């Protein structure tokens, strides 16, 4: 897939060949690149509704998304550092946090740039629903002040729990998504 994850798309069984179609049962297991680690999930069988008005049907199971989440978590993809150099539009300073958190204002009288270290603390849980899928992420965020000598001083750490629903639709021959923060 990329330098963090690989996919095993081998056949689970021999192809079923029928007069109007061929049924291919592919494994669809995603694992960390170069590290075939068994995921902590069990694949559940599923069926595609019987339809015959399209030439190709492609289905992804919840297992595929769960193993993808496991692979990227194991590879460290959910650990992100956001600094002023990383994002030109990201311009948060200790002054902004000081207006929200009084302890930061006491510590940092002079405004310093801020660096955020975001990391998932558990494998993000993905579940498929009728018209959308839900992603639950547990993580933490550590906020650092970047001092004039380029060293950093930890200001605070907070735990984060987010539950998000994502609905996908095809509109005007384009795949569109809508994101809803549930909590």
From TrEMBL:
* Assembly and oligomerization: Monomer. Homodimer; disulfide-linked.
Enumerate the SUPFAM superfamilies for this protein.
Bactericidal permeability-increasing protein, BPI
State the UniProt keywords alphabetically: Antibiotic, Antimicrobial, Disulfide bond, Glycoprotein, Immunity, Innate immunity, Secreted, Signal
Q: What does this protein do?
A: The cytotoxic action of BPI is limited to many species of Gram-negative bacteria; this specificity may be explained by a strong affinity of the very basic N-terminal half for the negatively charged lipopolysaccharides that are unique to the Gram-negative bacterial outer envelope.
Q: Where is the Lipid-binding serum glycoprotein C-terminal domain?
A: 50-183
Gene label? Bpifc_0
- Which protein is depicted? Bactericidal permeability-increasing protein
Question: GO biological process: what's one of them?
Answer: defense response to Gram-negative bacterium
* Native source species: Chordeiles acutipennis (Lesser nighthawk)
Its main subcellular localisation, reduced to a broad class, is: secreted
Q: Which GO terms describe its cellular component?
A: extracellular space
Molecular function terms in GO for this entry?
lipid binding
UniProt-annotated location(s): Secreted
Organism's domain of life? Eukaryota
Q: Taxonomy-wise, where does this protein's organism fall, top ranks first?
A: Eukaryota, Metazoa, Chordata, Craniata, Vertebrata
Which is an annotated Pfam family here? LBP_BPI_CETP_C
UniProt remark on domains:
The N- and C-terminal barrels adopt an identical fold despite having only 13% of conserved residues. The N-terminal region may be exposed to the interior of the granule, whereas the C-terminal portion may be embedded in the membrane. During phagocytosis and degranulation, proteases may be released and activated and cleave BPI at the junction of the N- and C-terminal portions of the molecule, providing controlled release of the N-terminal antibacterial fragment when bacteria are ingested.
